[in-house]
Amino acid sequence: MPASETWKHFESLVAAIHRAADEGADVRWDEQINGRQFDVTIRFGKGLYGYLTVVECKSQRAAVPVKEVEAFVTKAADAHANRAVIGSTSGFQSGAQAVAQRHNITLIKVTDSSDVDFSAFGAKVVDTIDALQIHSIELEYTDGKRKILPEESNK
Questions:
Q1: Closest C-alpha among 16, 21, 4 to residue 141
Q2: Burial, 130: exposed, middle or buried (Cβ in 10 Å; 0-12, 13-18, 19+)?
Q3: Do 52 and 82 form a contact (C-beta atoms < 8 A)?
Q4: Mean pLDDT confidence for 120-147
Q5: What is the distance between the alpha carbons of residues 155 and 152, in angstroms, rounded to a whole number?
Q6: Cα 26 from chain centroid?
Q7: pLDDT computed for residue 59 by the predictor
Q8: Angle at which helices 94-102 and 66-78 cross, to 10°
Q9: pLDDT tens, residue by residue, 4-62
Q10: Is 106 helix (H, G, I), strand (E, B) or coil?
């Protein structure tokens, strides 16, 4: 897959993971809010209230620097997001981690497995993803907890 297309696949993968993990949420890929573009947005309701999570995806070779996290703090605030998340394929500089913690930004590092053939995503990048080669997806949280996502295609 050309490097110029890698970011699209990473964004669509992050959106797909949230669709599977956030049952009942409205997960969108590439949405504009108040004139700002967000890679992934997640909306859900709890009781009488609606919540918005915005996600920025960074598919790059170097760890995400502090200035990019600081810029996202402002961008998320402009959208009135209740939660902000940055997903990275390469991790985060220590200064970026400190800024994220100070501003309640969740940082996730998405890594691939040698068992997953990501070329299955390459045929077509749309709102839904045909992933014929993925047998299971497991989320591992920083506290060590793990969640295996349902294997059923409709989940």
A1: 21
A2: exposed
A3: yes
A4: 56
A5: 6
A6: 14
A7: 86
A8: 30
A9: 567 787 888 888 888 877 878 999 989 999 999 999 999 999 889 999 999 999 988 89
A10: strand
Q: Quick one: tokens of 20?
A: 């599977």
**Beta strand segments in 1-152, E:** 26-33, 36-46, 49-58, 83-88, 105-109, 138-140, 146-148
Amino acid, res. 64: V
Give the tokens for residue 22. Answer: 């956030």
Express each pLDDT in 83-105 by its tens digit: 999 999 888 998 999 999 999 99
- Alpha helix (H) residue ranges in 55-140: 66-78, 94-102
Q: Report the first-to-last Cα separation within the chain, whole angstroms.
A: 28
- Domains of the chain: residue spans and CATH: 3-148 (3.40.1350.10)
**Rama region for 132: left / alpha / beta (φ>0; ψ in -120 to 50; rest):** alpha
Q: Which residues pair with 51 in a beta bridge?
A: 44
Three-class DSSP category at 92: strand
Give the pair of three-digit tokens for residue 146.
């793990």
Answer yes or no: are the C-beta atoms of 90 and 45 closer than 8 Å.
no
DSSP state of 74: H
